[in-house]
Amino acid sequence: MTRGTAMRFGSLFAGIGGFDLGLERSGMQCAWQVEIDPWCRQVLARHWPDVPRYEDVRDVGAGNLEWVDVIAGGFPCQDISSAGKREGIRGKRSGLWTEFARIIRELRPRFVIVENVAALLVRGMGTVLGDLAASGYDAEWQMLPAAAFGAPHIRQRVFIVAYPQSSRNQRERIRLADSQIKTLSEINGTKPHGCRQNVAYTPSELWRKQKTRDGRKVSTRGGTQSRQHNHWDIEPNVGRVADGIPHQVDRLRGLGNAVVPQVAEWLGRRILEADHGP
């Protein structure tokens, strides 16, 4: 990429475009999207009307996808999540990681961003890192909670950033594990879109704080239970039993699967910093 030219990214398992929105806010440009869900594709078409879209990751690759600097995506978590059957990364849905890895090998982008639930660390992380290494990529990763970006819920997610093994200088500059989230407000003197406050914790520090919290107090009065929260919710409250929401099932599934744009924006800025560094 030449200086003055926007870094271009491709979005796999795009969903409703959380990754795409965040990376665009960081200064990148979306080149293409791949998403199989019809309702999600309608959302993408509304917000990215001029971006080429494809339905199935199994049907795309070097033959029909334009080369991009970055490939980003959160592959399905259903077989990895503790809420599912825990079949792991070889399950029918989470096993689509193999298609993600194939597309990386075919297009050879300069950077790769992979997202999944925290349980990936015990149900597939070795496979992901092994496939990246076999494809010629080094990687670093970090647990990035939405709470560290101003959200009123924890939403722990694993993010992996990979780059060709020859790019040793890039590995030395990204350093996700050592990065402080507060640098979001310091980059170019701007604040990430939608971030409520500046947070001075590193992701690992915030995780330790959550593990040592007092927890949830439950009291029973007059036959009813009242919950007193003295910590953030694990996941956002999106009104799963609310009536009168148009396309309720589709909307809730889309929100539940979406990457938090503020996190994607921060990762995009870290990559751009490394790419333009000394």
| Structural class estimated from helices and strands | alpha/beta
C-alpha end-to-end distance? 15 Å
Write the element-wise H/E pattern from the N-terminal end onward. EHEHEEHEHEEHHEEHH
CATH topology: Rossmann fold
Tell me roughly what share of residues is in helical segments. 25-40%
Uncertain spans: 182-192, 194-204, 210-232
| Strands, total number | 9
- State the fourth-level CATH superfamily: Vaccinia Virus protein VP39
| Arithmetic mean of pLDDT | 78
Under the CATH scheme, which class? Answer: Alpha Beta
| CATH architecture descriptor name | 3-Layer(aba) Sandwich
Radius of gyration: 19 Å
Strand content: 15-25%
Instruction: Supply the number of structural domains.
Output: 1
Major pleated sheet: 7 strands, mixed
Give the overall silhouette.
Answer: globular
Number of helices: 8
- Describe the strand arrangement of the main beta sheet, using strand numbers: 3-2-1-4-5-7-6
What is the topology?
Elements: E1 8-12, H1 18-26, E2 29-34, H2 38-47, E3 53-54, E4 70-73, H3 97-107, E5 111-117, H4 125-134, E6 137-143, E7 157-164, H5 168-174, H6 203-211, E8 217-221, E9 224-228, H7 248-257, H8 261-275
Parallel strand pairs: 1-2, 1-4, 2-3, 4-5
Antiparallel strand pairs: 5-7, 6-7, 8-9
Helix pairs in contact: 1-8, 5-8
How would you characterize the overall build of this protein?
This protein is α/β, with parallel strands linked by helices and 278 residues long. Helix content is 29%, strand content 18%. It has 8 helices and 9 strands. The strands form 2 sheets. A 7-stranded mixed β-sheet has the order 3-2-1-4-5-7-6, sandwiched between helices. A two-stranded antiparallel sheet has the order 8-9. α3 links the parallel β4 and β5. α1 crosses α8 and α5 packs across α8. The two termini are 15 Å apart. 37% of the residues are buried. About 16% of the residues have low confidence.
